[in-house]
Design goal:
Blueprint (H helix, E strand, L loop, with lengths): L14 H14 L4 E3 L7 H4 L8 H5 L4 H9 L20 H10 L8 H13 L11 H12 L6 H7 L2 E5 L2 E2 L5 H8 L6 E2 L2 E2 L1 H4 L6 H12 L6 H17 L4 E6 L9 H12 L5 H22 L2 E6 L1 E2 L4 H7 L7 E2 L9 H7 L7 E5 L4 H10 L5 E3 L9 H15 L17 H21 L5 H19 L3
Parallel strand pairs: 1-2, 2-4, 3-5, 6-7, 7-10, 10-11
Antiparallel strand pairs: 8-9
Helix pairs in contact: 1-19, 1-20, 6-19, 11-12, 13-14, 14-16, 17-18, 18-19, 19-20
Length: 469
């Protein structure tokens, strides 16, 4: 297994830097995992007897990183068990796994390949490459373990040394699984995160139905913009009472506008009547980002903003399978002018923490680092999505920290739906951070004491502090 997962993986070939990176890594590799943002389904923790399904359902079905690659090479999503818009799927798990193994070479050199290799070895004890010839043997080994109590979600949570894991939940969610977890007596910390996109973004399919769900959940009739804001505030309060530390917002751009209540009301009334257009939707989102910042100051929830993904680019896949099917593509982004209306109101306020995530790496040194290096309210989130990779992390460290410093970043979050990949993702980050810090030491930019403090912060304490966990 040492050759399969080399102990010096991801470290510099330079012996001096590699030696320091090893020492730094020894100091952080066993720190608890803080997972402040992700998409693991809380239902898997609600029932202590819950067991994962087949290896296919565990590895393939929830992970768009995997099935988007397979789809790019001609594998149909139906063959992999990806459910359609109605939630229906009909497939042979063993056949799907065989297809996965037949194409495993596609993941060579990719972040998914790194995570999968680590998961197979460290979680399931598979100490060799997956390929066509051993697919069914590996399937049987994993399947047998999945039926063991040692591989229940709660058992793996403890084994992974997760200190806290935050889910992502719709504004109208009743959080019944979170309630079940908290009332079960289990000591695992699973916290909700408030995500209001389906009611804030007017172009959400079925928007009015989401408004009706929000009305029911909040117990407030939503006939105007003021009632809409009250309903959101009520739900935020409920989420906070359930332990939520943050909100999460996705937008195509970082554009914000400080619109008047009258302007927002006018747009909202058109939306209620089914008469809003694309311009209305864009304007309403920009105004609501400012409103959400105001609410975060009032209730103390950390605000996350994920920018730069053009969702559902493949119209056919969206029509057949709906959201989150691997067809979201990055676009260029701009922050300096776009965020100014929000920052003019709240950028200097000590009660706001706004964490920015972006898919356009050209903004790192040009905009994000200078902004976060000045405004007290701003922090920079870790490399996200397509850049959650070894090279993406290296680019992040090189382009952000010179201007923003380490302590205006927020450490790492895994942002995953694939629960077993969490330790592997954190390990890549910790190794990348240690190697980067070691490079600073050998260049005499920082000393060993500084390096030790930095890698501890990047691996653990920055996330706890930024998210108040």
């Amino acid at each position: 297994m040492e050759d399969f997962l080399h102990p010096d993986r991801f470290f510099s070939p330079d012996p001096g830097q590699r030696s320091i990176a090893r020492d730094l890594y020894e100091g952080v590799k066993n720190l608890p995992l803080v997972c402040p943002h992700g998409h693991v389904d809380p239902r898997i923790f609600a029932d202590p007897e819950y067991r994962f399904g087949s290896p296919t359902e565990l590895f393939l079905v929830p992970d768009h990183y995997i099935f988007r690659m397979l789809y790019s090479r001609g594998v149909q999503l139906e063959e992999l068990g990806v459910p359609d818009r109605e939630g229906k799927s009909s497939f042979d798990p063993r056949r799907a796994w065989q297809i996965f193994a037949d194409h495993f070479y596609l993941f060579t050199g990719t972040p998914s390949g790194i995570w999968l290799r680590d998961e197979l070895a460290n979680v399931f004890g598979i100490s060799g490459k997956l390929h066509s010839g051993n697919a069914q043997e590996v399937y049987d080994q994993i399947d047998k373990k999945l039926h063991s109590p040692d591989f229940s979600p709660r058992s793996l949570f403890a084994r992974f040394n997760i200190e806290v894991l935050c889910t992502t939940d719709a504004a109208a969610d009743k959080l019944e699984f979170h309630k079940a977890i908290q009332s079960s007596g289990w000591d695992g910390r699973i916290l909700p995160t408030f995500r209001p996109d389906t009611v804030v973004n007017l172009d959400t399919p079925g928007w009015i139905n989401h408004i009706h769900k929000l009305e029911e959940a909040a117990g407030i009739a939503i006939a105007d913009f003021k009632a809409f804001i009250s309903a959101l505030e009520e739900r935020r309060g409920f989420f906070k009472s359930m332990g939520a530390a943050a909100t999460d917002h996705a937008a195509l751009t970082a554009q914000t506008l400080d619109l008047s209540d009258l302007e927002m009301e006018t747009i909202f009334q058109r939306a209620l009547k089914g008469k809003s257009n694309k311009e209305d939707a864009a304007a309403f989102t920009t105004g609501m980002l400012v409103e959400m910042a105001r609410m975060s100051i009032d209730d103390g929830l950390v605000m996350q903003l994920h920018v730069g993904s053009l969702r559902n680019h493949n119209a056919e896949i969206y029509r057949k399978f709906g959201l989150d099917k691997g067809a979201d593509i990055p676009v260029t982004s701009e922050f300096t002018r776009s965020l100014k209306p929000l920052l003019d109101r709240f950028g200097n306020h000590p009660g706001l923490t706004l964490i920015l995530f972006n898919l356009d790496e050209t903004t790192y040194a040009r905009e994000l680092a200078p902004l976060a290096g000045h405004y007290p309210a701003l922090r920079i989130g870790p490399p996200w999505w397509f850049h959650d990779s070894l090279n993406g992390m290296r680019r992040f460290f090189d382009r952000v920290i010179e201007t923003a410093g380490v302590y205006n970043t927020v450490g790492f979050n895994d942002d995953t739906r694939a629960f077993p990949s969490i330790p592997a993702r954190h390990d890549v980050w910790r190794r990348a951070a240690c190697d980067w810090a070691a490079g600073q030491v050998v260049r005499h930019i920082i000393d060993r004491e500084d390096a030790e403090q930095i890698v501890e912060a990047l691996s653990y304490s920055l996330a706890k502090q930024a998210y108040n966990l």
